Amino acid sequence: MFGGPDDADASGAFGALVLRHRQTAALTQEELAAAAQLSVRAISDIERGRARGPQQRSVDALADALRLAGRDREGFVDTARRGRRRSPLRPEPWSPPPVDVCDLIGRDTELACLRRLAEQAAGAELPAGAMAAISGLPGVGKSSLASVAASRLSALFPDGVLHLDLRGFGEPLNSEDGLGRLLRLLGVSDGDLPTNYDERVARYRSLVQHRRVLVVLDDASSEAQVRPLLPGAPGSLTLVTSRHALAGLDAAHRIVLDVLKPDDAVALLTRIVGAPRVAGEQHAAGEIAALCGYLPLALRVASNRLASRPEWTVQHLAGRLSDQQRRLNTLTAGDVQVRAAFELSYRQLDQPAREAFRRLALVPGPDFTVPTAAVLGEVGESHAEQTVERLVDASLLHTAAGGGRYRFHALTRAFAGERLAEEEPAAERAAATARLNGWMLRTAGRAGQLLDARRPAATVDHEPVPFRTAAEAEAWLDAELGSWIPAIRDLAILRRPEDITAIARALCWYANNAWIRPLPWHESFEYAMITCGTIARGHDDAVMLTFLGWALYYRLGRPWLRASAPEVGRRRGWDEAWVDFHASGLMLNLGDLDGAVEHSHRAIAGFQEADSELGTAVARGNLAAALAAQGRTEQALDVQRANLEYYLGAGAGPDAVLGATGRAFTLMCMGQLQAELGLWPAALNAYRDAADLLDGVGNGWAQGRALLGQGLAHRQLGQPEAARDCLRRAHALLVAANDRYSQARVLNELAMACDELRDPAAAEHRLRASWLGNQLDPPSAAHLHGMTPAL
Q1: Which terminal residue of the chain has fewer beta carbons within 10 Å of its beta carbon, N or C?
Q2: CB under 8 A, 24+ apart: contacts of 342-348
Q3: Which helix or strand (DSSP H or E) is residue 352 part of?
Q4: Res. 377 pLDDT band, cuts 50 70 90
Q5: Are 363 and 372 in contact (CB under 8 A)?
């Protein structure tokens, strides 16, 4: 037992002393609490003898608040000290954890948080004590953190550190048995152990009521299992670990434990394997850390396996782990398996959650949304969301950055794939994959058509994503790239030309808008071309061939362009106009200016025949660029003026963003042409208006290009400070857009502006511009008007 009546007498004596001094000072409990910076509850408990003497800093604060000095203060402090003394439960009041965690690495932040919480709890500053809930995926080190924290914080809790394994994911310990074990640790003999559940709760809490104890409840399965085991008394701290979030607990602090940082992961491997062995293979050590997903359990297993095989190199183990099919088999050392940690959590799930967990392994992309889960499970989105959230609560899935998206840990995905292969027939797996691919491509097609102002939205079945705006559609295509590109690959394998050419056409407008992003456009169009060519679809083959040439040039830097098939030349229409549009852009950048002008005129004619004013305006942009490259700058400016008139009118369509973007790009092109003619004030106005428009529609990349032109115009007009300001803003936007060519141009202009201002930053800007220039592919050196994007 922890102490006896003498202890209660000492606590009562100190409480009576506090009460007497407070009354002498004519202070209320509230006034004393405010002066001493303690809670009113703490003052009340001390005066009633229900709390042991507070820590020294609290005693000093009370003495100061009561204005005690001399012998009064000495007696006050001495009485408080006697109240803090307790006969311990045992000579060493410690219930040792069952594991050795001497290799804990990378948890300094979490340990510091727990120390702050422990200091608050030990000082009786929290009326019901404190609790920290530590959650995270299997193998992330929750138990290790709790054990190390308990060891390091034990000095703050001299009445005992109690460790209880709740076996939450094996055969869970029920609360009544858990209470029995805690009571035995507290010195209650089996003969004195209450047999009634409620009596056990009451006995447990009475024993810890006035004690400073730290309780570790490891591997909890649920809130209901934990609640009766909480001390609920001032001076206590409870650490609860669980794979579940335990959102129903009113925890004072929550720690969601993540995987290790890469450097910490390598440090853990090095500590186990030995620095001499890792020293010459740092890169391979980093590979192992990454292949283990930076998960501490996986890293320990891999490291111990390597340490037990002195003939293996670090690179050899990295090679074995790189085989995804056998990675979980490789992560076995003796009787310790990473797979077993996931298996325990998986077996705790209900049947719908298990099925969802398995089938989500079919998603090829890095993350996914609830609609994707609904398609795979053939359920409604509400049901799918509940299931996915249960998987998050079980730490088998994680929320991804940005909200509304979910992801696997790499090893959890591998485990899900194993369960899928073993538990679902091949026919069901194939059907689920086909269902996912079909939905992805139909939704991608709908998104692409929404971006393409000429086409009405197609009907898409199975609860399509409800895009309200073109911006939402574009964001979906960006986010789901890792899933719809593989779906296109599967279509190519299945030889389905109608479907693959439809999706490739639908995404042309998106590809044009997003050429600056590092996306594999060449793959989409190459698959489409191969499929069409294999089954002799000449017209579709020619259309896809031209789109492929565009993608190969802008994405891979390959100056590859074949003449369009004669069939395209004999036909006119929207697709053929697009062929000519892309061909004109490619020819312009390859230096075939006459060909660029010819194909621009053909594109304009095709768009006019298709009754598309917007397409005509886009093609006129390429024509103006080709004319300017030929030195026919005045003619090019006239073409752009016609475009500006179109975008200023009602012809821009119902999408205000499209109209504003069209005006902005036209003004940018006009600004460049006016600059070439030496009309710098007009160029400045054009660039400034374009930048304002693009700021309003949120197109950071294009706004950066407009600010580049604006900065250049300011410098030409003898305004270097204004130029520097514009160019700095341009650089920030272009870095965010990953447009390295434009970054290099901005840095060169910024260096010249800084030279004029005698700003020493000029040298750094020039050096960075030179470095970027050396990294660029040839297409990146195209002129601004030669990179005219579709809107």
Answers
A1: N
A2: 342/138, 342/139, 342/396, 342/411, 342/412, 342/415, 343/415, 344/138, 344/169, 344/170, 345/138, 345/169, 345/243, 345/394, 345/395, 345/396, 346/396, 346/415, 346/419, 347/169, 348/169, 348/221, 348/394
A3: helix 351-359
A4: very high
A5: yes
Is 127 in contact with 42 (CB distance < 8 Å)?
yes
HSE value, Cβ hemisphere, 13 Å, CA-based, for 188: 20
Q: Which residues pair with 256 in a beta bridge?
A: 135
Rounded to an integer, what distance in angstroms lies between the CA atom of residue 726 and that of residue 28? Answer: 63
Centroid of chain to Cα 567: 48
**What is the C-alpha to C-alpha distance for residues 777 and 410, in angstroms, rounded to an integer?**
33
Query: Taking the CA of residue 103 as centre, how many other CA atoms within 13 Å lie in the half-sphere pointing to its CB?
Result: 21
In terms of Cα–Cα distance, which of 456, 454, 459, 430 is closest to 442? Answer: 459
428 CB-near residues (< 8 Å, 6+ apart): none
Identify the pLDDT of residue 553: 45
Helices (H) and strands (E) in the chain, counts: 39, 9
Tell me the Cα Rg of the chain.
35
DSSP strands (E only) in 169-275: 214-218, 237-242, 253-256
CB-based burial label for 191 (10 Å; 0-12, 13-18, 19+):
exposed
Structure tokens at 453: 């102002």
**DSSP characters for 81-117?**
HHHH----SSSS-B---SS--TT--S-HHHHHHHHHH
What's the Cα-to-Cα distance from 446 to each of 140, 456, 478, 605, 643, rounded to whole Å?
41, 9, 14, 27, 28
The sign of the torsion formed by the CA atoms of 776, 777, 778, 780 equals negative
Confirm if 674 and 712 have CB atoms less than 8 A apart.
no
Averaged over 281-299, what is the pLDDT? 94
What is the β-pairing status of strands 161-165 and 253-256? Answer: unpaired
Query: Rounded distance, CA 245 to CA 717, Å?
Result: 62
Give Cα separations from 564 to 539, 546, 584, 619 (angstroms).
9, 7, 12, 17
Instruction: Give just the sign of the alpha carbon dihedral 69, 74, 79, 82.
Output: positive
Copy the structure tokens of residue 443: 């939704």
pLDDT tens digit sequence for 10-34: 556 777 888 888 888 888 888 898 8
- Measured CA to CA, the distance from residue 441 to residue 311 in angstroms comes to 50
Give dist(CA 195, CA 186) in Å, integer.
16
Give the pair of three-digit tokens for residue 522.
């060449």
Query: How many CA atoms are closer than 13 Å to the CA of 81, on its beta-carbon side?
Result: 7
Query: What's the CA gap between 769 and 324, in Å, rounded?
Result: 41
Residue with tokens 């037990």: 308
Decide: 302 and 308 in contact? Cβ < 8 Å: no
Backbone angles phi, psi at 178, to 5 degrees: -65, -40
Between 170 and 319, where is the model more confident? Answer: 319
Token digits for 607?
Answer: 């768009």
Tell whether the model's pLDDT for residue 527 goes beyond 60: no
